[in-house]
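Subject: Sanity check before I submit

Could someone independently write out the structure tokens for this chain? I want to compare against mine line by line before I put it in a report. The sequence has 205 residues.
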Amino acid sequence: MADLILYHASPSRSSVVLWMLEELAKPYDIKPIKLSDNEQLRDDYRRLNPLGKVPTLVHKGVAITEVAAICTYLADEFPGRKLNIPVGSPQRGVYLKWLFFAPSVMEPAANDKVFPRKEPPRPGAIGYRDLDTVLDIVAKATVPGPYLMGEQFTAADVVVGSLLRWGMMFGFVPKRPEFETYVGRLNSRPAAQRAMAKDKELSAR
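---
Independent answer below. Compare away.
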């Protein structure tokens, strides 16, 4: 058994971690979780992830949850792949900002767009802005390119790029030229293609 085990539902948020694992090029095992059968609510799984959701990554017996946390951990744990900005570099702060911008700003703003509230939330209370404003910020960051951190592809591209890919696929992120160019560049990566192929195979089972 590999040291890295991904509890994965295909396709879902855990697909982001699947791509990250492919970028690492390290051995890993997949433990499929069938959401339609509520397997994520089993007691044995909720001991790993009390919220009963995917993904969960187990590395050397330790369970890690939350997509951005998992990707940050993996990038730091396997620095030879150069998917992180190391501690000590001033640019690490920018890198961490993008890693957590996706789940803490982009995704909540997208949820407000898809599931509108009866009354608009006060930006000062929720800590983010409307989706269009948020996407303007992301678009500006993708233009210099080729990646969020310039020439270096990092875990931040995996996290932010995945959200943009899914958003355009399901229609809650507009297909701006900047996003299509950026996501197209990410989709052309061999690791991303392997991950998408695995997801397709797992979904067909």
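---
OP: Matches mine. For the report I'm noting this point. The chain has a mean pLDDT of 94.
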